[in-house]
Amino acid sequence: MARKKIALIGAGMIGGTLAHLAAKKEMGDIVLFDIAEGMPQGKALDLSQCGPIEGFDANIKGSNDYADIADADVVIVTAGVPRKPGMSRDDLLGINLKVMKSVGEGIKNNCPDAFVICITNPLDAMVWALREFSGLPHNKVVGMAGVLDSARFATFLAWEFGCSVKDVNAFVLGGHGDTMVPVTSYTTINGIPVNDYAKIKGVPADRIDEIVKRTRAGGGEIVQLLGNGSAYYAPATSAIAMAEAYLGDQKRILPCASYVEGKYGLDGLYVGVPTVIGAGGTEEVIEIELSDEEKANLKVSTDAVEELLEVCKGLDSSLA
Ligand SMILES: NC(=O)C1=CN([C@@H]2O[C@H](COP(=O)(O)OP(=O)(O)OC[C@H]3O[C@@H](n4cnc5c(N)ncnc54)[C@H](O)[C@@H]3O)[C@@H](O)[C@H]2O)C=CC1
Ligand SMILES: O=C([O-])CC(=O)C(=O)O
Fold it and tell me: What value of ipTM does the predicted structure carry?
């Protein structure tokens, strides 16, 4: 059986990390595409030379030609610009929308059967626009954010409780912005609801509130510390988990920016919701019971995403 083909559009910080992870895991052969000339080819050479040391078999090719992504099984999109300290993700919309247009066309023309994972920010609007530009079915285009945001929430909770991160099952819904909704009612420490565990451990409720706030601002905290660029290790790891769920038909339930029509009172929007990922792409959006407060928070978050879609439509008439 031929190896799977993974196309990475954008060979920057996340793209390079994705290539390394995908190669180490022998997920398939890899094409690292970027508009910058030489850079993806250089990274591909460097990464290929890890093979003999790490013992992986994967062909890694750097390219500036969309023809090289032909027939890819999975495409992960990080093309565009990251934010700098003082910026919001939404400030990237104008420039990254144009990037999504060229990437969407490249995918449509070369690998229309691929499963496409978008990472570029502002995430929920960009995955929507990428889907529109590519014309792929909604179940084959998804955005990565909830896996990352949930991992941040889990990390901070594990630090607070002094427990293993492996035992924390944290859940973040909504748009990938400061209004995202960490859902404590579905967050458990090996099955024990987080608020109950906090009582057992004598952790005051306001500490959990602070962790929720830190999670919401988790991307910005790293942007501030790095000074130039944004997080890349955990974002790449998150997207790889989603790609593995698709390639392995794992039917994992992951929080992803999926197309939601009908559920959660939404009418055709990409936003973070629990999603079954298997060989059919995003096979199902799971609608969970939320408290009135959680519903209200989710509404604030989805309203913010809807506003961004209006901005996209204003900037590119083909989206209107
Ligand atoms: N969804 C999420 O949770 C996260 C999203 N991000 C976003 O991911 C994106 C990428 O981040 P990094 O890899 O750190 O940025 P980066 O700047 O290191 O890499 C982006 C790459 O895209 C390339 N590029 C620009 N225009 C292109 C085009 N038209 N076609 C192909 N390639 C193009 C650039 O040459 C650059 O190499 C940013 O928008 C960032 O905000 C970052 C972290 C988490
Ligand atoms: O904060 C940013 O700009 C990058 C991002 O989306 C994240 O790390 O969550």
Answer: 0.99
Ligand nearest to the CA of 238: 1
pLDDT score, position 296: 96
**132-165: b or e for each residue (b if 16 or more CB lie within 10 Å)?**
bbbebebbbbbbbbbbbbbbbbbbbbbebbeeee
Contact 238, 204 (CB under 8 A): no
Options 5, 101, 131, 176, the catalytic residue: 176
Distance 230 CA to ligand 2 centre (A): 6
Segment 160-177, tens digit of pLDDT: 999 999 999 999 999 999
Q: In terms of Cα–Cα distance, which of 119, 155, 174 is closest to 298?
A: 174
Encode burial over 19-29: b for 16+ CB neighbours within 10 A, e otherwise: bbbbbbeebbb
* 70 and 106 Cβ atoms separated by less than 8 Å: no
